[in-house]
Amino acid sequence: MKAAEKYRHVFGSIHHLKDQISWTTGLTNMVEFLAWEPKQILGITKKQYVRQIIEWATDPELAGKDVEEIEHAIIKKLNTKMHESEQLETYSTQRVGICHPREATRRVMFFSEEYLNKEFDIFLSLCSDTYLDLFYQQFITFKSNETWSMHGNSGLFEASTALKAMYMDNLAYNHQSNVLIANELKFNGRKNPDQILKYCVMYEHLLENGFIDKGTKFLLLFVGGDALEYNKQRLVDRELALCHKRPKKYQHLLRQELLDIVDHLQVASLTWPALIAFNDCYLAENNVCQVEQKLLQGFRQSLQSKSFMHLAV
Question: Which terminus in the chain has less CB density within 10 A, N or C?
Fold first, then answer.
């Protein structure tokens, strides 16, 4: 049984992006992220961690010791290493080495783009359709008062769609309005040099495999530290120039079918401070229920705590 089949057998699958996913799936995705990226918790790769334990256990000083003595010695060394890596200031740089649990938590909360992606998944899945209408209508026109469904980058998405090597961040889909939004989050970095074309590959795959309907409007929204250049054609031309320089690697992106998708793709960008400002305005101008108030205010607090809101100052 292949990996995707194992996943679907255990966790189920989606058959169309209109399928509604519970917000609690975002918590599962968080666990999945940490399970597949143990370096986020260990501070070093799993292979490095195992090698370090082996080196300690085979130290000549421990020759002839019983298991309990070896265990005690390794735990002592491990605790020493963890305390050496721990930083006591919120935005201090990260030290190389095995993480203390507090240090691992500090790194993912304030410095991890992937962790932010998972927070964003949960945030969007709990937002009202009214909020999502107003938010996305800043960038693309569509019919209001319809239902949104959210999909994060997860084993569920990959195993269901069979879309490999496409590390999208989050998709917002409105079936009745026939609109797909790809939310590409940047902690404080730039867009990848081939990112627009790769999202066109994703759109093509979803359409061909029945996960979206023909004629679906497509917006690629970058959210990050800096606003993206708004000239779509210039952005695409740069990506194509890169692909032409390395045609063997990028031949799958140099197809007319993708250029046809580019023609109707819309690209926009938003900064994190602008997102906070929109949320504040939404709260002030709308009669929002207490649950959504807490949701927006909580996400605001989380965004304001991220390192990109402090280190650039």
Answer: C
Q: Which two tokens stand for residue 266?
A: 């819309």
pTM of the predicted protein model: 0.92
Kindly report, residue by residue over 240-299, the tens digit of the pLDDT: 999 999 988 888 888 999 999 999 999 999 999 999 999 999 999 999 999 999 999 999
Report the alpha-carbon distance of residue 134 to residue 127 in Å, rounded: 11
d(CA 300, CA 223): 15
d(CA 11, CA 60): 47
State whether the Cα torsion 257-237-216-5 is positive or negative.
positive
CB atoms within 10 A of CB 278: 16
Instruction: Name the amino acid, one letter, at 192.
Output: N
Structure tokens given for 232: 């779509």
- Backbone φ and ψ for 174, nearest 5 degrees, come out as -120, 105
